[in-house]
Amino acid sequence: MKKRTFLVFFSILLSVFCLGGFVACPPAAANYDPLVSWNEGTTKETIVNFVEEVTNPNSCNYVPPSGRIVTIDNDGTLWTEKPIVIQGEFLKYRLGNAFPDVTLASLTEKDIVLADLQLPEMTPEEYKDEARKFLDKKNHPYLGVPYIQLTFQPMVELVNYLQSNDFKVYICSGGGTDFIRSFAEDAYGIPPENIIGSTTQTQYCCTEDHGTYSCPEYEDDGTYSCPEYENDETYVLVKKRELVKPFNDGPGKVVGIDRYIGKKPIMAVGNSSGDLAMLDYTDDDQGPALMMLLHHDDTRECPDGYPVTIGGHDIYCPYDTRPGDDTNPFDVANERGWTVISMEEDFVTVYGEEIDQAQTGSELDISNEDFVTVSGEEIDQAQTGSELDISNQDFWDRIIQEVTRIRK
Asked: Disulfide: which of 105, 155, 268, 294 matches 313 by Cβ 3.0-4.6 Å?
């Protein structure tokens, strides 16, 4: 258990004792802030007010848990996508010289998903295993840390805050479904069934020698002939080199939401023009709704030495739009009255290195400890910091002594 997690755990532990009538709660437990990485201001207030309004049974804007649907983009919204798209780096690593002759700086998510089709046929499990090993072991070329650590700490807190209030949070991304599934549950706490991404066709095929597969043939009417099933044969699901249409970006995101959720979101979060259709779909004037766009206006997101030149393209920081954007999404957001999240103004930290430790530890008299690192040590699944051994009896003896002391 990491230090930051311990603080949350300890706060919850004291809350349990308090609710059970054992002890009086110290101020820290009552003042715990689930959005500690967000600066106080209009944006944070808007989020908290919206959540409190739709979860209050006495409010005219109350939404039952079954209707609390949230869709959030991934690249550039939950983790970094500049100056490279991380899935593109994975494919470059995996395909080598077979990777398309186009610079990563100018690749769109659609380019990357189409390049994904060049990979050999494999099962979804094999693909996710390869992707996760890459994310865990390979470092970002400029930031110098494993890719898995490049999640935005405030956005991870937002996801956790929503889930703790019975929101069903979905990722809706132009990136590959299986690529995102390889890490999303560990990185964000979002399970694989809540991932809506660009998807390849799959088939249930018979395995043959040397890792090849015998797959059924599809007919023109959409049916397919399946090989006879034998007791001594092994069948697996195989990713095919064919994209499921439409591509999950722009209007395709709306199709994906309807196809895989079947309900309109009441909250949608993105960062580019590819998310405008999703936000517009959410903003239907039929009930409470919150639409948000993340503005990359903060140099803390970027490595030193910007601009970086890749393939003749200068990538600057901060950046407003992604390659191929013909519409400035923030102009649209301002016109529609949607909330714009400013990384510079609203984030205490980007990756986790700048959280004011007084916000998390002063009440427990351990404010001199170094709680976070440049890579966001507080995120359990992405960290390499020292573990806290809670199996040691001395640890629990100290907890009991502290609780007893507070009772007195």
From this structure: 105
Alpha-carbon gap, residue 20 to 78, rounded angstroms: 37
Among the listed residues 154, 183, 161, 149, the one whose alpha carbon sits nearest the alpha carbon of residue 70: 161
DSSP helix/strand/coil, 16 = helix
Quick check: pTM over 0.90? no
Distance separating alpha carbons of residues 295 and 82, to the nearest angstrom: 13
367 class by beta-carbon count within 10 Å (0-12 exposed, 13-18 middle, 19+ buried): middle
**3-class state of residue 127 by DSSP:** helix
Instruction: Kindly state the DSSP code that residue 244 receives in the 8-state scheme.
Output: P
- Cβ atoms of 161 and 51 closer than 8 Å: yes
Give the contacts of 125 (CB within 8 A, at least 6 positions apart): none
* DSSP structural state of residue 104: G
pLDDT at 306: 63
Euclidean distance between CA atoms 248 and 263, whole angstroms = 17
CA distance 387 to 2: 6
User: In sequence order, what are the beta bridge partners of 205?
Assistant: 236
- Residue corresponding to tokens 């503005």: 295
Give the count of alpha carbons within 13 A of 26, CB side only. Answer: 17
Please, what sign has the CA dihedral across residues 59, 60, 66, 67? negative
Query: Which of 26-30, 73-77, 327-331 has the weakest average pLDDT?
Result: 26-30
Tell which phi-psi region holds residue 76, choosing left (phi > 0), alpha (psi between -120 and 50) or beta.
Answer: left
Indicate the pLDDT class of residue 3, thresholds 50, 70 and 90.
very low
What residues does 342 pair with on adjacent strands? 295
Handedness of CA 179, 182, 186, 189 (dihedral sign): positive
φ/ψ of residue 227, rounded to 5: -65, 155
Round to whole Å and give the CA distance between 232 and 235: 10
Comparing CA positions, the residue from 12, 8, 14 lying closest to residue 399 is 14
| Rounded CA separation 273/329 (Å) | 5
Where residue 267 falls (left for φ over 0; alpha for ψ -120 to 50; beta otherwise) is beta
Residue 338 exposure: Cα atoms within 13 Å on the Cβ side? 31
The amino acid that residue 175 corresponds to is G
